[in-house]
Amino acid sequence: MYDPRQRLIVALDVSSAAAAQKIVAAVGDSASCYKVGMQLYTAEGPGIVRDLVASGRRVFLDLKYHDIPNTVAAAVREAAGLGVSMLTVHASGGGKMMRAATEAARKSNAALMVLAVTVLTSLDDNDLDKLGVHGRVKDQVLRLAALALADGCQGVVASAQEASELRSELDGDFAIVTPGIRLASMDPGDQARVVTPAEAIAAGASHIVVGRPITGAADPASEARAILGQISF
Ligand code: C5P
Hey, which of 13, 63, 64, 89 would you mutate to test ligand 1's pocket, going by the most ligand atoms within 8 Å of its Cβ? Predict the structure, then answer.
């Protein structure tokens, strides 16, 4: 059985290192992995990543790299040098790019997980059609996830709805990192499709990303503990 703390990633969607560290201190021992995304990284740069790593936390650097293979590989090497544990690339950057990213990761730090973002959950079938991708979002998600795994990615970022289909259609022990989590009693906020922590794990998620339900709570540590309790099975 997994330690549930290995499965919980707290999203630090704030715009200063001080605000991020306040959340980390409030969560305490209830979580050990934090997601640094483009908001915090753009505001504070690599210093916040170094500080989190130096304090013994694991960092999921969610900058969704999407560029030519050489450039992405170079960025992956820099991220590995910062000590991050997980990072994201866009699968639509193609197989050569993902191969370059995963080879750069492997050579820098064999434990660094490169995760692929397939289709942003803000896009629907009609949006894809306008982008020249004809067919259903779910088929494109499966196609891009299969490509990502074939090109060395250790997993994908996917909604819980997509997770069960990915598990049934694709072989192997790959990671599925799932955002859009709410406790049953909560206001869904701007997340259109939400699931509870237990539903996400049952659907096949290996990790859940939780932002505002923890970071906006009056007692973030107790909220995180409640979530851990729900995924301890
Ligand atoms: O605050 P909340 O729990 O909604 O945060 C979810 C995190 O997951 C945010 O950092 C958001 O950018 C990210 N995310 C998401 N939905 C996706 C992909 C990523 O909410 N489809």
Answer: 13
State how many domains the chain has.
1
Nearest to 154 by CA among 203, 121, 199, 106: 106
What secondary structure does DSSP assign to 15-80, as a single string? SSHHHHHHHHHHHGGG--EEEEEHHHHHHHTHHHHHHHHHTT-EEEEEEEE-S-HHHHHHHHHHHH
Angle at 182 between CA 178 and CA 187, to 5 degrees: 140
Domain CATH number, residue 211? 3.20.20.70
Write out pLDDT tens, residues 216-230.
Answer: 999 999 999 999 999
**In the chain, what is the greatest distance between 2 CA atoms, to the nearest angstrom?**
47
The boundaries of the domain holding residue 202 are 4-230
**Cα distance between residue 78 and residue 45, in whole Å:** 12
Condensed to tens digits (0 to 9), the pLDDT of residues 154-185 reads 999 999 989 999 999 999 999 999 999 998 76
Residues flanking ligand 1, CB < 6 Å: 11, 13, 35, 37, 121, 179-181, 191, 209-213
